[in-house]
Design a protein that fits this description.
CATH class: Alpha Beta
InterPro entries: GNAT_dom (IPR000182), YpeA/RimI_acetyltransf (IPR050680)
GO molecular function, one term: acyltransferase activity
CATH topology: Aminopeptidase
Radius of gyration: 15 Å
Protein name: GNAT family N-acetyltransferase
Number of strands: 6
Number of helices: 4
Structural class: alpha+beta
Shape: globular
EC number: 2.3.1.-
Organism: Sphingomonas quercus
CATH architecture: 3-Layer(aba) Sandwich
Helix content: 25-40%
Distance between the termini: 31 Å
Number of domains: 1
CATH superfamily: Gcn5-related N-acetyltransferase (GNAT)
Strand content: 35-45%
Strand order of the largest sheet: 1-2-3-4-6-5
């Protein structure tokens, strides 16, 4: 939760609560990947698989550890684990204006759809979500 609370700007309403995390972690097919520097947590990814498709639910890196390749490493680790669990495709969604979208596109994800007004910011402002997907066959 330390990473969750630091990695996501509360203005956009993207961070999950402790209860949401605990609830999803108890479901089959869900896994968490942690990145750390020594004993200090730096980032995480949370994903799940259903049948032969995986979904990256969350990925977050603490501000002091950004621009060090941690997000890309977590994304790649999620892809590898998804393949090991039998996934042929990985999906995710991202706030349309989120700078992380560039990471996903550079990693080979392509747009699959858009959810208008999906995210509700702290001030009530609505933000679109862009859904992206990637075939894992070529990894």
């Amino acid at each position: 939760m330390i990473v969750m609370n630091e990695a996501f700007d509360p203005a956009f309403g993207e961070a999950w609560t402790r209860a949401q995390c605990a609830g999803i972690m108890s479901l089959p097919g869900v896994w968490l990947t942690l990145a750390s520097e020594g004993e200090t947590p730096a980032g995480f990814s949370l994903a799940r698989i259903v049948a032969d498709e995986a979904e990256l639910l969350l990925i977050g890196v603490r501000p002091g550890w950004r621009r060090r390749g941690i997000g890309r490493a977590l994304l790649h680790a999620t892809e590898i684990e998804a393949i090991a669990r039998g996934a042929g495709k990985l999906h995710l969604e991202v706030r349309a204006e989120n700078p992380a979208a560039a990471l996903y596109v550079s990693a080979g994800f392509t747009p699959a759809g858009r959810r208008i007004g999906y995210y509700v910011g702290k001030d009530g402002q609505l933000f679109d979500a862009v859904t992206l997907s990637k075939s894992l066959d070529a990894i």
